[in-house]
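Board notes (copied after class):
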Amino acid sequence: MRRRRTRGKSKWVSDDEIEKWVEEEQWALENSLDMMNEQIDVITNNELVTVPSHGSIPEVVEDGIVRMMSVQVNSMSTARVRNRKAAELQEVVRRYNPHLIGIGEVGINWNCAKNGQRLLSLFPELEKDSQSATAHNSHLSERIGVHQMGGVGQIIRGELLGFHKRKSLSKDFRNLGRWVSTVYSGCQGHTTRVIQAYRVRSVRSKEMGSMEQQHIRYMQKNGLRGNPTGMFDSDLLNQLQVWRANGERLILMMDANEHVLTGKLCRRLSDASIELREVTKDRLGSLCPNTHASGSIPIDGVWATPDVDVVNVKWLSLVESPGDHRACLVDFTSRSVVGTDGKKIVRPACRRLTSSNQQSVDNYLREMERQWDIHRMDQRLAAIELASAGATPLPPDIAAAAEKLDRQAAEIQRHCEKHCRKIYRSEIPCSPEVSLWDKRGKMFTRMLAALAGRVKNPGVLYKKARKLGIQSPRRWTEEQIRHGRHIAKAWKRRLSLSAPSLRTDHLTQRLIEAEATGDTERATAIRNMLSRESNSNMWSQLSWAFKDNGGRANAVSRIERVENGEVVEYTAQEDIERVVREETQSRFSAAASSPFCQGLLGEQLGYLSDTSIAESILDGSYVIPPEVDDATALLIDEIGRIGQTIIRGSTRQDISPDEFSTYWRRVRESTSSSYSGVHFGHYVVAGTSERFATFFAKKISLTTRTGWAPSRWGIGLTVLLEKIAGVALVNKTRAILLMEGDYNMHNRVIFGDRMMSIAREHELIPDDQYAEKESDGQDGAFMKRLVYDFSRLMKIALGIVSEDASNCYDRIAHPFCSLVFQAFGVAIASVIAMLSCIQRMKFYLRTAFGESPGFMTALLGTIIQGLCQGNAASPAGWSVVCAILLAAYNQGGHGAKIKPPIRGDHFETAGVLYVDDVDLFTMDATLDEDAMWTEIQSSTLDWSGVLIGSGGTAKGEKCFGYLADYMWDESGQWHYTPPPSKPLVILLPDGTTEEITVLPCDVHQVTLGVASSPDGNDQHHLAAKGKARDKWKSIRTKAEVWVNRLKNAHLPSKYVWVSYRLQLWSSVRYSLGVLSARLKDLTELCPRFAFEVLPYLGINRRVRAGWRYMHSAFGGFGLLDLATEVVISRVNLFLQHWDNPAPIGKTLRACMQALQLQCGCQGCPLSERFYPMGELCDHSWVTSFWECVSAYSIMIELDYPDLPLPRANDQMIMQVAISLGYTLAQLRSVNRCRISSCSLFLSDIASADGRRVDPTRALPDVDYSATSAFDWPIERPSAADWRVWQAFLQRLTLPDGTLLRTLGKWLYPSHRNWEWFYDPVSDTITRRLEDRHEVYCLCPDDGPSTRQAQQYARTRTISLGEEVKGVPISVINSGETIQRLAAGPPLAVAASECPESFFEFLSTWKGDWMWEDLHMPLGLDAVVSSIRNGSAIYVTDGSYMRTLDPSIDGAGWLIYCRTRRVG
């Protein structure tokens, strides 16, 4: 009645009615407990009311069971009905927890639903860890609205998801939405298909939207005879026969709209070709009386083929069931459905000891102190230390005592954790209300035990029951107690929805009380608890919503392996462990192919390189046998060179208690480790105690001094993780070895810290390694980008080979590794302690099934090699190994030879190394095409050789190469040459070669997280289409995936903002600065995506774009703009690397100088306006950065000196061309010819006297490179370009050929190399060439009256050492004779680089204003004297207040001598 009254008032409700409803809801909430107590009182005095269900099923799903539920909801298209039925369905799911839910008569046309809405969107509680499949009438003629009768769906949940084959989803082939099926596969060949179907009624409905009328319209349109029911029967039976013929097991859940046994269709389901049987009759012996609310016969059923085993069946009552049909629950054996006993993920046990729980820490330390005293641990360690003084290795008896001590310490640690606290796990957040019903439920269970006589003192139990509000507990019968427990569970399920808010209210109330009483410590603890739980809940929801695996643990529950060209899947625990053991065995034995492990060298070194031969290699005295290959010989030489540089064993060996405490204070306590159970938390807590920190520090120091290691260190736990969610190929999984915590501390301190400190101190880590301190993968990608750009700007051929190492950490030969560690100063005892544990390592395995009972270890006569992922020494170890490899590789003279085109020294870079990613550069302007390819192949083989020497090898399928060479078309436009047809090969450990792909320069490859190619096009990184499961995704794909997941997440706006900034943009922001995309490409990508996000962020879409991106400090919403973020990242990257002495900084400066020559500006291009000069330049990172700086009006001041105008009245050629109003196409032609003629200033194209244009500067097909001191980019202007250039030169002169603005004397030295010089004293002309000087004298026929047209002939040659005298002159060279033109003024002499005075030296530091008011009455000598005597006192101060005036600052200083005043 109330609903009917409210429906009529949906447009207007009075304030009195609203207030009345609020009061009613508040009253119901406050009196809910009293109402429940009344229910309990009624139970004690009345008979139990039974519910009309049929069959039985346990509420808790047992192991090895797959539970499925079928329900007919009878339409969920309207919000009011949908919310009610969704709540009812979710209540059933919470109670019975089915793995699959089949839903009939959904009643929604998903094509017309809201954007992003799906079946799971209707059930918020079921979205987590679930997938859905739906089918509806999808014909265009039926897309009238959201409401559409019919339609079916399935929801797959929990463990069953691991077996779901999404690609095998099948729908009604007529697209009428009559059925949908999903496929589940476990062991090879074991496949089960689950079908949810709705059969059309045989009674024809006249309602136009009914399913009958939908199907009739379809049949009429397609010319089909019969009726919808007959068509359904025929289609379904045929489809079932096909599936059954394919060997699939079938489970059919259907609303048959006829008797499930005697109906026309249902009888045919049992045909021999299908073999479906109704499970209710088969399991229970009787059918459910009726399944529809108004029916009298069972019309709903579940059918299964005989090869599917049914365990339990239950038809719920109509009261419990959503919709107007009974819901059916069926338990099948998981072995019959998926071929295994289920995939219940076995998670590691919860840690009782955690440093954040102070009570557990106090209890743990207290028990540790007691046990330590009982077993005299400190005294025993001291005795071992005393007995082991100077003993390396430890004697057997002392080693046995140390081993016993270590085992006992670990046992005590585990014992103390076990007794430090008890763990109570609640299914829902705890609060007084939840706790009450939880305790009541447990009390009812104990009361049942009391009735059975299993409680010693029932009186105490009943007393506690009365405190919980259970009146007269002695009078309760067993049936009443069971029903009371059922009510308690129901109340817990009811409270589960409001449990988070109830707990928040409870903690808030306690916080108010603590603050009111002044208990600040308790208030702080409660406040931290509120914050921690809120953040935990938020990130749990965000992980579920946006992570690829739905926030679930990606523990491996199945493994795939390629066998005989086919992918074979393994799902049984035994099979998975066997396959992984075989893969692990192969992986860790592959390093034995190293030359250091084979032949005479391998015998002489041993597995640990602790022999006299190893000593001779380290001190450089080893004579390399002739049978050793060249790559191995180079490695031996480099080890010897470094071994002689660093003092042997120079790393400090002891570990102090302070270092122990500091180390464990900085680690992440939650990190998984330790097969023994002594996790990080033990050492974190031990580090807070001086006694235990001292004990463990001494025990680790014993290892570093003697080389002894506990046997516990030789046991590891391998955890398999999927690199890409859903990809289970064994060679594509990541195997992390969990080592003991103290073992990893030893490795981190000795190798990761101390060894690397020595390596950095001696500058032995090459700049080409970017997996180094203060560097990252983005820097490596930036270096690649700059090398690409320099090649493109200068048109120098570039070869790049990506030669990634295979399993780099696991393929390091131990003899070679030991030599490297010793060469870098690590004591042999520490090396033996670490490597010997790996060599005898026992690899246990953790998968979704838990930890394996068996282990993998080395085969008889072999050892485990490599450093293992999970070893804290692996990154440092690989870093020093790469330092040796790179030094040996550089002996071949490989790499990119780069010379800044204007000023700067020549430098070389081998490439970019980042862990296993290796990109080798080859660039040399002196090499022709054939020599260039030969050098590329040689460098590739040399790197393969040194990599094999270390025990590794290149991963052929991931290797590729580029050759970026250039050609020009007839229009003067350059292009990349096609890839060469010659093969490019890498060397393999067995001596054979493998060909790798040579890609065109416009094909992208993803390296270091960036999709790049030599052509510099970033469209692939920005907007390439991809899938959510891809390992690498473009920015567009990341945004689309995030938006699609957001639409289904139903998160509050504040959570969406957190995800927007910290999840989406954190992933997008990486490598943004490396991109060289133009601003127009960046601005086109963002708006559409941002517009979709607005409602979820709580922003109205009508808000203008400017307010969306404006920072919140200025009243905007603070959305992030891609173009702006790219600009910020580029500025940061530029400021970080500019003027850096490393190759990346030098290459950046070289690119900037190349850009300056391309655009023709006088100084730094960043100080010029981008348009039009920037449009004349080739695409590059510096070009795009220039565009950003200009567009955003960013002022960047650099130490980048301008090129002074060499002559009076001189000008920049391109500035003159721009001022003449040339179009962009004309400017490009002028610029090409200017670059080809190596000209920057007007003085570069003017005659010696500065009055005319030098006629030789307008000639095509002339090599002008020798006429300039700069290295100019290569250009090949077309004939049309030269015509534009000649026309441009004509516009610079008057009709008589005189320049409009004649040039004056030389002011500064010019980059132009003058070839001809005239000496008026001797009347000779000298030609300056690269290898000689030629002298020309006046021809005898020419007299002095015709000096301007006099002819000079070559008479002699002089050496380069003789000085060329005279002034520049222009001539016309006709071969053996030249015609003299006008001579110019003498060239300017370069100023001396050495300052002549101290103040000139100070001027080189800039800031001349500091010395303008300098006052020294006694002179500079007095200042120097006071400094030398130590009597000088310095006082300085400065002032700068940006808020008052950002352009004004000041500083002053005073030097005072205690013996006399000097300044």
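Comment from the instructor: Residues 1-13, 27-51 have pLDDT under 50 and may be disordered. The chain has 44 helices and 39 strands.
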